[in-house]
Write the structure tokens for this entry.
Amino acid sequence: MEVIKGDITRVEADAIVNAANSSLLGGGGVDGAIHRAGGPQILAACKKIGGCETGQAVITTAGNLPFKGVIHTVGPVWRGGNSGESELLASAYLASLRIAKEKGFQSLAFPNISTGVYGFPKELAAKIAIQTVQDFLRSDPGLSVMFVCFDEENFLIYKEMIQR
Ligand code: AR6
């Protein structure tokens, strides 16, 4: 596991994960950045799939981006913590990891799912993300995972938690 600060569209990896919404029709934040950089092929592929439930994931072409695919997952909206948010966030990470494994990818980059407009508390989200990836890699050590933090706050949280 590795932590870097920056724009996920510019990393080196077999695939990147998008923090999408269940319509898969695009949006702001990292979703907007990926669709802008990848071009209309990604949206066309998303439309064909038709949607994705919270906690699940799907894969499309990466369009103009130099990846073997973009894995779109839908994290939960934070509603105070008693609506299964933690389990759904773990499930979003796990569903993405499973697709990467199925496809035989060797490296995968995650954004900090749900910690933008979906309002998930950043510390708790980082704890769940790291734990879920760590558990997965214990049985599947063949995948290299990168956490790509866009904002300074997430970057500091991840750096600190990974060191520990
Ligand atoms: N690269 C990496 N991370 C980024 C980038 C980027 N280029 N841009 C933003 N982030 P958000 P969510 C970080 O809001 O909370 C969309 O409209 C950002 O700092 O993108 O899961 C979708 O369509 C934050 O830490 O996703 C959904 O409707 C993290 O990405 C909704 O937002 C996630 O923030 C999903 O909300």
The mean pLDDT is 98. The beta strands are 2-5, 15-20, 57-60, 69-74, 107-110, 144-149. The chain has one domain: 2-163.
